[in-house]
Amino acid sequence: MDPKLLQSVLPYLAIGIVFALRFRNMNKPRPFNASRLWMMPAVLAATVAFFLVTFPPSPLGWLIVGFALLIGAVAGIKRGQWMHLERDPQTGKMLIRQSPAALIFLLGILVARRVLAYEVGSSPGADATGHIPPEALLVTDGLMAFALAMVVLMRWTLWQRAKAVPPHPEVVT
């Protein structure tokens, strides 16, 4: 098999497998621990900050980062609203279920990312001289900012919603 074809098809195959597994387990509630919601945004914020400090964007890049933060914030709030939170009637523990709308939305974001990267003409890596095209850096900065805002606001929305779920009434025996 042609290595270039494999390099093009493999990411789509991996995404397809992940989403097939997520759709299969969509109706299964998973344990939800609101006290751990801060961990992923903290790691992601540190990573994005590292890259923005190490490779500072141009003024146009900062504009793109700001716009991507705004769009990611809206997307994160919407995705957090689509998740199903509930309390287990027997144990009283919080449970979360993925909604079909949230998964389809996430799939749409991945497709949009691939289309954007294709339209800009950015490649996954540097060219033969080791030079990374500036368009690729702009797209990368924007996508990192988008992902950061989406994750932070989705988790903040889930935390707010979890606080609003009534506590489990104690079982009197």
Structure summarized in a few sentences:
The protein is mainly α.
Question: How does this structure look, described?
Answer:
The protein has 173 residues and is mainly alpha-helical. A hairpin with a 6-residue loop joins strand 2 and strand 3 (94-97). The model has no long low-confidence stretch (mean pLDDT 82). The chain starts with a helix and ends in a 9-residue tail after the last helix. It contains five helices and three strands. The protein has one domain (3-164). It has a three-stranded antiparallel beta sheet with strand order 1-3-2, covered by helices on one side.
Characteristic terms for this protein:
173 residues; mainly alpha; 5 helices
Instruction: Summarize the helix and strand pattern as letters.
Output: HEHHEEHH
In DSSP terms (H or I, runs of 4 or more residues), the helix count works out at 5
The best one-word shape is globular
Q: Tell me which oligomeric state these chains represent.
A: single chain
Tally of structural domains: 1
Helix/strand/pairing category: mainly alpha
Largest sheet: 3 strands, antiparallel
Rg over CA atoms, rounded to whole Å, is 20 Å
Distance between the termini: 66 Å
Q: What percent of the residues sit in helical stretches (DSSP H or I)?
A: 55-70%
Placed side by side, the strands forming the largest sheet appear as: 1-3-2
Low-confidence stretches: none
